[in-house]
From TrEMBL:
Residues 1-58 form the HTH lysR-type domain. Gene3D superfamilies: 3.40.190.290, Winged helix-like DNA-binding domain superfamily/Winged helix DNA-binding domain (1.10.10.10). CDD domains: PBP2_LTTR_substrate. InterPro entries: HTH-type_LysR_regulators, LysR_HTH_N, LysR_subst-bd, WH-like_DNA-bd_sf, WH_DNA-bd_sf. The lineage of its organism: Bacteria, Bacillati, Bacillota, Negativicutes, Selenomonadales. This is DNA-binding transcriptional LysR family regulator. Belongs to the LysR transcriptional regulatory family. Pfam families: HTH_1, LysR_substrate. One of its GO terms (cellular component) is cytosol. GO terms for molecular function: DNA binding; DNA-binding transcription factor activity. Keywords: DNA-binding, Transcription, Transcription regulation.
Length: 291
């Protein structure tokens, strides 16, 4: 049943004539008459009596009138609620991020943005790369802080290059004192971060034809550090992950360098709310990413 036709019916009944209703609603008399004929055809019942002195309801129409009024009121309530939700939606930013980004970047970014937009509400979720892109694809988040991926079509704003380091137990023997050659991972007991979903680590090893002896895989970076600290094996983690780490481990730069580009991924810049666009612009000019 067409809600618009019901609204027009109720307005027409208030005026008592098609002519007056058409004038107040901006329809032609013939157009409004056609709409009421269409409504009666939709429900299969004649609800209006047409006469020389105006219109009135048929007995069937009288019985249906309270239901029409309830229908119109419910439809208006839905419209009001949708507008309310849309208005609130403009004040919310939903962010997905790696744990390392949430720990090291978001506190500074969000606190500064709150000063400029004190009424904003920000929801954050911490996930791995694959899960972040799934959330973005399902529109469960507006944006994600991650590496550019192939999980779904998206637009990407580069923010920073994040270098990987060799993470070793204290006293672990190395060929050089200041640099850890990638080839030294060959055959060594390796603890793989992100449950083997760290694409950048896997790519670096495969590109350099390095076969590792994988001892364990963990989705939690602190667990990887704890395992390395305990002498269970060696690993490769990025600077952002290692920032603020308290575990007693040896950290060495890699040769050749291995890095990833971190940034913001969105489905479409054009479809973002003005608030989310403002936040992305704020992030891009933040001192964290100053060149």
């Amino acid at each position: 049943m067409d809600a618009k036709k019901i609204q027009v019916l109720l307005s027409t009944l208030k005026t008592g004539s098609f002519l007056k209703a058409a004038d107040s609603l901006g329809y032609t008399p013939s157009g409004l008459t056609h709409m009421m004929d269409s409504l009666e055809k939709d429900i299969g019942i004649t609800i209006l009596k047409r006469g020389r002195f105006g219109i009135c309801l048929t007995p069937e129409g009288e019985k249906l009138l309270p239901l029409f009024e309830d229908f119109a009121a419910a439809e208006q309530k839905i419209r009001n609620e949708v507008r309310s939700l849309q208005s609130r939606r403009q004040e919310i930013i939903r962010i997905g991020a790696y744990a390392s980004v949430a720990r090291n970047w978001l506190p500074s970014l969000l606190s500064g943005f709150y000063l400029e937009h004190p009424k904003v509400s920000i929801e954050t979720v911490v996930l791995g790369r694959e899960e972040l892109y799934n959330a973005l694809k399902k529109r469960e988040v507006d944006m994600i802080f991650a590496c550019s991926g192939t999980e779904c079509k998206h637009e990407f704003v580069s923010l920073a290059k994040d270098y990987y380091r060799a993470v070793l137990p204290l006293g672990y023997p190395t060929a050089q004192e200041t640099i850890f050659a990638l080839k030294e991972f060959e055959g060594a007991p390796f603890i793989m971060p992100s449950f083997m979903k760290d694409i950048d680590v896997q790519k670096a090893l495969e590109t350099n034809n390095i076969s590792i002896k994988m001892l364990a895989a963990s989705a939690d970076d602190p667990v990887v550090l704890s395992m390395v600290s305990g002498g269970l094996g060696i690993s490769m983690l990025s600077d952002l992950v290692l920032q603020g780490a308290s575990e007693k481990v040896k950290i060495m730069p890699l040769e050749p360098n291995v890095s990833r580009i971190l940034g913001i991924a969105v489905l479409s810049m054009q479809s973002l709310s003005p608030l989310v666009k403002n936040f992305i612009a704020y992030v891009k000019r933040h001192k964290i990413f100053a060149q």
